[in-house]
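A quick aside before the break. I want you to see a complete sequence-to-structure record at least once, exactly as it would be stored in a machine-readable document. Don't worry about memorizing anything.
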Amino acid sequence: MKKKNKSGSAPSPKEISSCQVKAVITIDERGQMVLPKELRDVMGITAGDKLAVISMASKGEVCCLSLMKVDELSDAVRNKLGPVLDEIKGSEKSKKE
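That is the input. The structure line, written in C-alpha cells, reads:
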C-alpha cells in the first residue's frame, strides 16, 4: 500500500524517502570534520546548530551514522511520545478519582 502525503494524494518523487551519498568528508587528526557549504545550505544548518549523531548497527557493529538537527529530533520524539504520556497521565488521573 502506497503512503499518501498530507493532501491525501500519492507522494511526488521528491516526497519519497531515499538514501544518497551527498558528500565525502575527511576527518582530521583532531577528529574534526567539515560539512560542505552546499550540504549545510540544503539542510539549513548554520553556525551554533546542534546535531545529533544517530548510529545504526548490523550484527552488533555500527555500519552507519546519520546526522539530525537536535530540534527536529526533539520534535519527533515529542510527537511520538506525547500521546503515550497523555494516555498515561489520563489513566493515573482516573485511578485517583
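Two observations worth writing down. The domain at 13-96 is CATH 2.10.260.10 (Pemi-like Protein 1; Chain: D). The helical segments are 37-43, 70-96. We'll return to this after the break.
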